[in-house]
């Protein structure tokens, strides 16, 4: 990984890597996110995806050939029966993830699971998954991969070092047109559990848990299937007085219908001692566009602008797997644990409740 030199201190944008990168990983799912993100990042990081299975054998064969995976199984059950597999990477729709994890934990040779986000279609199903893994002694890590976007991590370092002082106001503003997946039609939801969950989790990563949230949705004029959460607006209130605002605009104007486009994701964190602002390069995918951070403090009186070459999609996807492998080596719970992710899922469910009832929703201290 190549970084552009700057006067800024080390912002900790790279994940901590395990000592042993050769742990056999079994991959379940062979769609876009596995093919274009997980496996690309794993190969670059030196990890060992050893086997793959999907509901369609021919798709698994194609992905295996592209990424040099030697073992292809007809179905996930056959993969899970392979006693050489120690870690399972699951990238399937959220409404089938519980069923797969219920089968995974029956195999004592499997020590760890990296589960795609959202971990389930609702909080109660997520709780079942967390309980299943806990009871089986399996380490569960949830793939909230935006925590490994390089500008998100840089901002977290700034906050942890106290450079920005007490956080006052934070915003994330997304103007993008995501590619919705066909399985979302049967869910009747899209933005909050698929895209906004990244931004809500990023706020939790930066600042911890809010005490209440207010959310407002309107449908996306471009999306034809019935849905409740197209464009999403969110306000998070913290006990400290901090306020966070998220705008997830998945309409972004009639850019697909002939108008000029103005797409992008920007964020800003203002504190009592300084502030940071950044961009997320994802809306320009597949063109590689690194995220950025600029920061300033009262002490330096100018903008620092460190830059790097890495991008969220796909480079950041090495982070959650690295975190799981490190947790298994050290015998610790990963930061992206299932237990932690229950708080993100509780926040997401509270957003749906808020939008439905048109009122702010208090968050429980322990979901």
From TrEMBL:
It comes from the Bacteria. Residues 152-276 form the GFO/IDH/MocA-like oxidoreductase domain. Pfam families: GFO_IDH_MocA (PF01408), GFO_IDH_MocA_C3 (PF22725). SUPFAM superfamilies: Glyceraldehyde-3-phosphate dehydrogenase-like, C-terminal domain, NAD(P)-binding Rossmann-fold domains. Gene3D superfamilies: Dihydrodipicolinate Reductase, domain 2, NAD(P)-binding Rossmann-like Domain. The keyword Oxidoreductase applies. InterPro entries: Gfo/Idh/MocA-like_OxRdtase_N, Gfo/Idh/MocA_oxidoreduct, GFO_IDH_MocA-like_dom, NAD(P)-bd_dom_sf. PANTHER family: CONSERVED EXPRESSED OXIDOREDUCTASE (EUROFUNG) (PTHR43708), CONSERVED EXPRESSED OXIDOREDUCTASE (EUROFUNG)-RELATED (PTHR43708:SF5). Belongs to the Gfo/Idh/MocA family. This is Oxidoreductase, Gfo/Idh/MocA family. It comes from Rhodopirellula baltica SH28.
